[in-house]
Amino acid sequence: MRKLILITLFWHCATKLIHPTSADVERARQWYPEVDSLTLVTGMKLYKAKCGQCHRPIHPGTFTAREWIRHVNEFSDEAKLSDNQKLLIIIYVQTFSKDRFDYSKYDAKKQRRKRKG
Ligand code: HEC
Known about the structure:
mainly alpha
């Protein structure tokens, strides 16, 4: 089981974090109306810096939005997060979580969104 977790972590870490666009800001506002692009970019940077100290940052698409709250809380002391930093990280990872971002329209290798249709 432990081996499986490590392999899963490694596989997900190989993928780069997604840089937010204005479309992502619009989506994020459904749940957090105050979000702007700086919120998401700051969240991404914090996530990389704070949650990438011991292991590479785990890809946001690994978990659902709800699961992410638990994972960020679990490691917030170890990562020494302030309440504000914790919130920014949660908003970023949730915006690109398994159930809030359409990965079928995203080309992870080329780091860009596929054209519609
Ligand atoms: C002080 C080192 C350290 C920091 C900082 C850290 N992690 Fe981890 N993380 C670990 C270790 C060690 C494991 C593997 C063993 C375990 O599960 O405790 C792990 C495993 C995980 C896992 C796999 C499943 C689980 O819950 O155990 C997730 C998800 C995770 N970390 C998320 C995060 C997030 C989100 C942050 C930032 C808020 C973070 N980590 C910061 C050390 C750290």
